[in-house]
């Protein structure tokens, strides 16, 4: 998996921690960082002009997480104001890699690397449509397109 | 809404409390009792021979919760072994009323009354198919059929 | 339970629907409206100067939902932009009633009425501290204080 | 991270898929496999005589997921009967590695590798108590103890 290319091409999404996100340990339940990250990716894609419902309607396609690696670095707690910093790492023919870091102030709470696969209505891998690829690469310097 | 008819016609479903179910208050997060209740209803319907996927495949129909009332009586906690006691209260033309009580030992943690509406693929109210009505009323004495 | 007093004293909180909120029926899972409502109440209390963590630190107190009634009126879907409209109905000695409506545009998706009890660290009912009562009643015309 | 040692020393835990687990894509929401896995680990530890609440009461210690890697191989769907196959890979001084595979029949739906850290009440890393280490290594041939 490649390293991030340019730190400055990053989508930032705020997340507030509510009771629903915490567990009896008094901290954010680990699986919920994946929910935070998915919200942030949804907003990043919306900002790029390709919200889920549009991609589904126009192309019959959706994203699915095919792999993720998460380091849980520091617990977040009730009422915390977090930020999810999301970056595309690489765009392949039918998938992409993204890095997402959940932060409180300057401190990382969780670091995720995910592979998102593009799938059709039957759940089969599908090539990224040119419109989607174009939107993702709009800020061309922020991602490296595979040969 | 009618009162329960016969205490003995009750479906009992065990639920264990895991970290995912709790919140930073150290107790089960209130909305999660609705998840427990929905699991129990799913198993009650499966036991009656009409699991969700079968009703969907055979009749193109599904259940939706159209109203619920919940009294949160006593907190449940991590590792607690709970039971959901579910009872049909009344079967209407396109809906049914159920009562569900989440218990730890003999103590009630939450009491729910719900109206479930039968809907078609477009989300419109639909009459209960005879097969479904028959399955629900199999133990005829346990429910009162509306005129 | 009393009727709402003044429609104009309402806290409005935006909620976007993500994949995590939906279910295989293609709509928002019913229990998740309670999560949306709890987020909105948390922000309403924060706006009144009494976020959960402050009330816990200053007074050793927390809110717990002791009863809720929900009407699920109209399904919300992926990518929908919702609003939660929250209103205090009545402030008692150790609890309050609130009404919350989850809307998409001008249409109600879910309507909730909830009783929130104030509890101490042992989970016992506790009187609302004057500071909290004062904050809640700041806009005095918006709520009716019980005798 | 080491490879599993003995396929036969595996804890198997059944999970049924309910509406709450699915999303609008019609499949199990990716983050929920982590919930399934956590349920299975909780039961594995209970079977070994060290449920969460006992470790907390006796030693003031808890487990926290410090890293996980998940491959989402094949979607699970509503009403599916899954199994979580859990195996300890390695026991360190203050942590352990586990492998968990979520299966439907003979097919893998998700494969997880996790590092669980033992922490004290302040969230600091803590050495595994001998009682816990002993319980984990009860079936000594199933795990390799680090030097």
List the helices and strands and how they pair.
The structure is a homotetramer.
Chain A: E1 11-16, H1 32-47, H2 52-59, E2 62-72, E3 81-91, E4 95-104, E5 107-119, H3 130-136, E6 144-145
Parallel strand pairs in A: 3-6
Antiparallel strand pairs in A: 1-3, 2-5, 3-4, 4-5
Task: Indicate the radius of gyration of chain A in whole angstroms.
Answer: 16 Å
Q: What's the CATH H-level homologous superfamily of chain A? A: Hotdog Thioesterase
CATH class of chain A: Alpha Beta
Q: What structural class do you assign from the helix and strand content of chain A?
A: alpha+beta
Q: Could you write a compact summary of the structure shown?
A:
The structure is a homotetramer of 147-residue chains. Chain A is α+β, with helices and mostly antiparallel strands and 147 residues long.
How would you portray this structure in words?
Four copies of one chain form a homotetramer. With 147 residues, chain A is of the alpha+beta class. Chain A has a single domain (11-138), classed as Thiol Ester Dehydrase, Chain A (Roll). Chain A contains three helices and six strands. Chain A has helices spanning 32-47, 52-59, 130-136; strands spanning 11-16, 62-72, 81-91, 95-104, 107-119, 144-145. In chain A, strands 1, 2, 3, 4, 5 and 6 form a six-stranded mixed sheet that branches. In chain A, a hairpin with a 3-residue loop joins strand 3 (81-91) and strand 4. The longest helix of chain A has 16 residues, at 32-47. The first copy, chain A, is elongated. Mean pLDDT of chain A is 90; it is low at 1-7 and 140-147. The interface between A and B is medium-sized, with 12 and 12 residues. Strand 2 (62-72) of chain A pairs antiparallel with strand 2 of chain D, so a sheet runs across the interface.
């Amino acid at each position: 998996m490649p390293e991030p290319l340019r730190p400055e091409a990053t989508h930032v999404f705020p997340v507030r921690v509510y009771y629903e996100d915490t567990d009896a340990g008094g901290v954010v339940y680990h699986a919920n960082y994946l929910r935070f990250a998915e919200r942030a990716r949804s907003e990043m894609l919306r900002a790029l002009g390709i919200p889920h419902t549009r991609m589904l309607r126009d192309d019959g396609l959706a994203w699915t997480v095919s792999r993720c690696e998460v380091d849980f670095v520091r617990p977040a707690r009730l009422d915390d104001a977090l930020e999810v910093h999301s970056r595309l790492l690489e765009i392949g023919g039918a998938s992409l890699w993204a890095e997402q870091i959940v932060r409180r102030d300057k401190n990382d709470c969780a670091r995720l690397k995910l592979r998102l696969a593009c799938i059709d209505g039957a759940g089969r891998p599908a090539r990224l449509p040119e419109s989607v690829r174009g939107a993702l690469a709009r800020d061309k310097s922020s991602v490296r397109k595979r040969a």
